[in-house]
Structures are given as C-alpha cells and as structure tokens.
Amino acid sequence: MTNWLPDLEHGKGPLYLRLAERIESDISEGILAPGTKLPPQRNLAFDIGVTIGTVGRAYNLIRERGLVSGEVGRGTYVTDHKETSLVPPPQTEPFGGTRGPVATPGKIRMDSTAAIEVGQSGTMERLLAQISKQYPTEIASYSRTLPASWQQAGSKWLSAAGWTPDPSCIVPTLGAHSAILAVIAAITVPGDRIAFEDLTYCSAARSVNLMGRRSVIMQTQNGSLTPDDFERHCAQQHPKLVFLMPSLHNPTATTMPEEHRRAIVEIARRYNVWIIEDEIYGSLTRHDHVKIANLAPERTFHIGGLSKSVAAGVRGGWVACPPHLAARVLTAHKMVSGGMPFIMAELGAQIVNCGEADTIRAKVQTEVRAREAIARSAFAGMDFISQPLSPFLWMKLPDPWLSGTFKNAALNEGVLIDDEDEFKPGRTEKVFHGVRLGLTVPRTREELQQGFTILRRLMETDNASYDSYS
After folding, report:
1. In CATH, which of 3.30.70.790, 1.10.10.10, 3.40.50.360, 3.40.50.150 is domain 15-84?
2. Per its UniProt record, what SUPFAM superfamilies does this chain match (predicted)?
3. Fewer CB within a 10 Å sphere, N or C end of the chain?
4. Cβ atoms of residues 15 and 54 within 8 Å
5. Short-list 397, 395, 377, CA closest to 386
6. Architecture field, domain 108-116+358-465
7. What are the Cα distances from residue 25, in Å, to 18, 60, 80, 392, 403?
C-alpha cells in the first residue's frame, strides 16, 4: 500500500472530479505505478478531509476509465494500462438486454408496443410531400434553427390534466429515448447516481451505464415506487436524478397514485433530486392524473412522443424542461444524437399541429381497447395486470414456470415475448415470475388471438414436459 496523498488545492470542479483527475495524472506520470494499491476509501477521506462519498465517486470514475481495478475486500489497484489500453474492456453484462438485436423472423411478435398500424402511411405520404415542396432547402441541409411551430407542437402534445407546458421550455427530440439521454447528459456527470425502479424501461438504465453514470435500484410495491423507499435511497445513495413512468408504468401496467406523486415531489425537493417523468404511454391512455411536472416544474423533465400512439417510425418526441435548462438540453441532444433532422422534426410538428395526430391516436386507441378486451377473455382466470388502453399486459406466471424459461418456451412455439429480466436495471435478488405481452404489433386480431392461445396452452402445461433440447 502506498503513502500517496493527493494535492487537491489546485484544479476546478467538484472535489471528487479533482481527485479523479489527480489520480489519473499521477498514474500517467508514474507516481502511481502499475500494481500500486490505492489507500482504502475511508482512510484517504480522513487524511485529505473529505467525505467517504467523495472518494468513492472518484474511485468509481477512474475505474470506469480503466485505470484501476479491484474487488470488495481486496482493495483498489492501479492497472497496467499501457499493456491493456489497446484491448477493449470485457462486457460484464448484456449490452442490449434479453432481446436479440434483430427480431426473429416468422414469429408472432409480442415483444414490442409500437403504435398499431391503422393506415398512417397515407397521412405521412401527404405531409412528407407537402414538406418537400415547402422546405426544399431545409431538408437538404442541417437543422440550425428551432422553429416556434416545433415547440408549439410539443406543448400541445404534452398538455394533459390541466397542465400546459410553456412552448419556450420545449425541446424537440428524436423520440422519447433520445430525450432521456439528452437530459441525463445535460444535468449529470460520470459517476453520478441515477435511481430506477426495480422494473422499468431498461434501455434508459443501460444507456446510463454506458455513459459512465451508476444505477440505483429502488424497490416497488404493487408495481409502483413508494415514497418511503424513495426517501431511503435519497438519504443513503444520494442520487442526482430519478427516472419514473407514473402513468401506465412499463412493464407492470400500473399507475402511480396521486398521493405518491405529491410525496415523491416533496422528497425530491428536500434532497435536491431531478426528476424525469416519462409519459410516453400517457399520450395513449390520457389519464387525468396530475403531472409531476405540474407539481414540481423547477426540477422535472416531462417527456413524451408519438411512438406508442401515432407512429414509432416518425421518431417524434419532446421534453418539457425547467425554464432555465431548455437551452442546455437542446445542446446536449445535439451532442448525443448528432442533431435533429429537419424532415423528421417538421413531420412530427405538422402531424400534431394540423390535428392528424389526434385522429390517428383515436384510431389506435379504438384498436388497443379491442385487443385488450381479447386479452382479458383469452387469459380469464389468470393473474395479470392491464388497463383498457394499455398496449401491453403484465402476466404473473403460474407455478412452476420461471420467466426466462417461459420466454424460451414461447419462442420455441413461435411467439416472441419479453421476460422480466428485460426490465431489470441491474442485478437484484427480487424475482417477479412475470412476463410482458405486447398487443400492438400482430397485424390482425386473429394473429393476436393465435398467440394468446399458444401462450395460454404453455402456461397450463407443467414446464417439466417442455422439451428444450432443440
């Protein structure tokens, strides 16, 4: 173990970042040679007069940079980075969850919740032709402006439950996922903790890890975060940001009670936590629940888009930001996405502003309602959660089925579904024995019914009789 003590008097930024930079500098200069054991976090914190959390964040940051390695109980050691710098670090967890990068062809797809096809192509064809004639120069170049109509469309689409965001606070994005990444990039730095529910939209959590942030997993009850558990994590883990889906939670199809929303807002204020309110499904269900952004506009990023209720291929999304952060999120979105294509932003804005998005949404809602009724009939007597306008349902599997085993059995029978691991933001001992069944991608109700029949038959079959040798 070294007697090394860093000098943090010089430098800019937070103490943990200055400490990380000092460690990296001393490694590059040979002061900390490969194999050197860094001081224990508690000892170093005492010696230099900072909190153990500051040292922990710095050590995590340099570990993410590949400069050190170690395990709990062994300590933290400087790696031989000159020898390993040309070798990519091994992936310790699935890069993209439990889905394959390309859907298996010839299967009944219940692993997606994209908007149902209800004849959107005719509207898209007309609007795209109109945009090409109106803006021939803009569609041939980069987007360097932010037309007021784009922001007005976002304000209109996100408005709900008596809340209408100020258009000046709206940032158009390449879908809701791109909006999430832009917010994370804008208000957090590597090493920051971001809190997720124990089941959630995990593409966001995986993206967080790729960006050098750390996931904090919060426990839920009945599919929803409880204020008590949120406060416990705020006090112990100090997350910078919490990601929530309060209206039609993915994948549990639950809705957060209003009293929980209000309590979570007050806790976030006490601990100075930012909030992402992902309302991508809210635009489809149109529940009259108070929006967190309406309760805490100074710290909430309210995100929505067209993918679940109009057309996923348009990649239309918007984020309503706290007033002083819209410009920062706009810049961050350009950095993480490469910029907003004019033709996509204009298409998303026009389809909302001319009212066609509402027309398509009404058709999608009608079809979703019919398909959800088919699901209720097909799985009568079984344990599942759904809502009349939910494009998916959360199925509790009967004994002795396990989630991953059932997913493989369904695939073998020609049906693609999502197991619970697809929605876990990290390793956890909690087991839900659940799967999510999407209702919107099968082209016909008959194909959907066929898939339900296969799945019900599997659930009623003892999985010991399932032959998985193939």
Report:
1. 1.10.10.10
2. PLP-dependent transferases, Winged helix' DNA-binding domain
3. C
4. yes
5. 395
6. Alpha-Beta Complex (3.90)
7. 10, 16, 15, 51, 47
Q: Is the pLDDT of residue 16 over 80?
A: yes
427-453 residues labelled b (16+ CB within 10 A) or e (exposed): eeeeebbbbbbbbbbbeeeeebbebbe
10 Å CB burial of residue 137 (0-12, 13-18, 19+) is: exposed
- Of 69-78, 301-310, 380-389, 390-399, the least confident: 69-78
Residue range 206-243, pLDDT digits in tens: 899 888 898 999 999 888 899 999 999 999 989 999 99
Range(s) within the chain of domains with CATH label 3.40.640.10: 120-355
Burial 235-254 (b: 16+ CB within 10 A, else e): eeebbbbbbbbbbbbbbbbb
| pLDDT of amino acid 288 | 81
Q: What is the architecture, at CATH level 2, of domain 120-355?
A: 3-Layer(aba) Sandwich (3.40)
| pLDDT value of residue 417 | 97
Specify whether the CB–CB gap between 384 and 393 falls below 8 A. yes
Res. 428 pLDDT band, cuts 50 70 90: confident
Token code pair at residue 244: 């929530």
What pTM value is reported for the model?
A: 0.80
> What is the rounded average pLDDT of the residues 374-381?
97
